[in-house]
Amino acid sequence: MESMKGKRVVITGPTSGIGKGIARGLGSLGAQLILACRDTAKGEATAIEILKDEGAKGAAVRQVDMSRQQSIRDFARGIAEEFGRIDALVNNAGISRGPQRRAESEDGIELTFATNVVGYFLLTLELMEVLKAGAPSRIVNVASSFASDLDLDDLQFARRPFEGMKAYAQSKVCDRLLTWALARRLEGTRVTANAMAPGLVVDTGLYRDFTAEMTQPLRQRAELTVAQGADTAVWLASSPDVEGASDRFFYQRKEIPCAFRNRESEEKLWEICRELTHRAK
What we know:
This protein is of the alpha/beta class. It is 42% helix and 14% strand.
């Protein structure tokens, strides 16, 4: 892949699983990494690990809780003041509630939706000016092939019985829908937006709340390593092969059809996220 020397990349959720794989992949290409972490101690340990890799140049650790809107705004303001521009944003941080009960963020939003969807939406908008300052720049949204159960009239499981995996699967539909709505708004800016699916990678923090009995069926399927799951996101953030490409969905470096493309749904979700974040543009 193309060298990322001199390029600056923000990665959310970089301390475990796919996020760490993406960070290490881009770090080995020489990118200056900004590790957006909820737990900065884990972030510092990850930075030390990354800097041992051949080709790694730098990894700055900055704190952000992707379920908290004020934290996201504070983080983005700090990035703008400290760095001025970025060349890529990889929205990766996500949670799965597993068998746990429904919970809400401090902003009163169902926690999975707040983190996996509203977090992507708000951080992207809050970093838009520094992305434009670094143009041509790229936004990579880590989605999933495990995507279903979309109910735009009950995104927060206020009426439906809460099921952690359904909430997660719905959030990954939403990540795709927001990518397509964003790509339309970015036309002519030299900022691109694409989504990708990492495939089945069981050894990530995503399944930390699952019992061994729950993860066993997953392990019986064809499973990818963390590096294999991260590879497409690294490629989308760095490769000249996709320079200028936008509004696309990728798996294993190949564009694949996305069943979730509906402009009315995309715009409805965008408006819901805009209302939930109040100050979003």
